Amino acid sequence: MPSDAMSSSGASGISPDGHYITGNVYVGGKYLGYVWKDGNIYRQLKENNGIAIPYAISPYGEYTTGWVMNKNRQACFWGPDDNFTTLSDQQSPFCVGKKFSPDGKKLLYFGGWQTEEEAGGAGKVRGAWALYDMETGKKSAILPAGDNDDLDFFDISGNGTVMCEDNQLGYIYQNGKGTFAYKYLKEKGVNLADYHVFVNPDSPKDSDGETLYNVTRATSVSVDDHIMGFLFYNDNKDSDGNYAISSQSMIVKFGSPMFSPMPPVSIKTQQLSGLNSVKITWKPNVAATGITGYKVYRDGNKVSSDVVTAEGFVDAGVPVGEHKYEVTAVYGDVESADSETATVKVENQKLSTPTNLFAQQHGYSAAYMEWNNPSTNFGALTYFNPDNANLETFGLSFDGESYETAIAFDAVTLSAYKGQKLTSVGFTRWRLRAAGLSTSTHAAQTVSCRSSTHSRYAEAELRRAQRR
Hints:
By secondary structure, this protein is mainly beta. Helices cover 3% and strands 44% of the residues. The chain has 3 helices and 38 strands. Strands 22, 23, 25, 26 and 27 form a 5-stranded antiparallel beta sheet that branches. The radius of gyration is 29 Å and the shape is globular.
């Protein structure tokens, strides 16, 4: 956070890989926009009239979008230089840049009213929602179905398909054309009657004579349009035969993923402690079926000699420096496109000690200790990232008898340390002083045990040596 005194703060957007977060901080009477990278302030966004409110961030953190204050709110985006570009001249309490497409090439925003000429003349509906092409700067209005612009937006795919609500009905804007969700689903072969979607008996047909199923909102869409989410009213009835409708969600999956192979998601990389090895982990796309394995690429070159069946891989002997990793999913003989990129910086190993050692008396003759990870690691798995290891970073002695700690590692991590031993566990000396107690110095003995790639647990019990 900024060093100045702040009154409030809030995060509003996060990149798919989790490295970048955008939000604002209220400091000194100003709403200041920031981008954080891996938990640290990375950039401050330029404000206007003391306000910069980001709403979303592009996949790799280069761009953010939201609004700045002119006479009223004005939709904009911020570039890598942190300066903002307004998306239109329109200003209102609702103008905002709201979301990037998954590839970051399209930006959806509110406040893109067309001119009369763009709309086709006076009296024509002038769209308020618009898509901005980040590569060409072209703006495309998203028009409602009727004469009243009552659109609201919820999601956008990598193909530019926009999921909306228009006049209390789900609405899909695709390839420059808007279609109500119930019509779109019918065209895709979905029989909404099978899902007990409510049809108002007072107005069962639309103006084209089609059954008007109450699919009330198009809520979400996958990157490739393969999966869509909707809200609808069901046609439940009570025991007396009266309608007792309620809102339900519906997930519709179109076609077979074998013909649209989906890459893995949530790619994460991490240099392993004490090694020039990188651990890569991922998750299969929630919509994917038929995956037979994965392939791992570093800097565009495949590093997994065989198809990997686990959801993790260790790349050994990685040169010092920054590297980019992608993972593909294999569906039989078909390989997906690359996943999102995960970047890791491999550094030379340096010995380092734990930090912020803390000790406190517990009860009459017990002691409590805790510490933080060293800033760099050297083959010390005890200080491994807690996100990837079940780690207890404290110990407790009771009645002067023992000091115990245990740690668990996943099989992928242990495979990188095959053939190595757990040689020692040690702690710096510390001194306990308390009223009514004599001064004691405690030192932990070292232990030796062999690690096994077949065992997920390595435990060591340390007997405390006391000197008085």
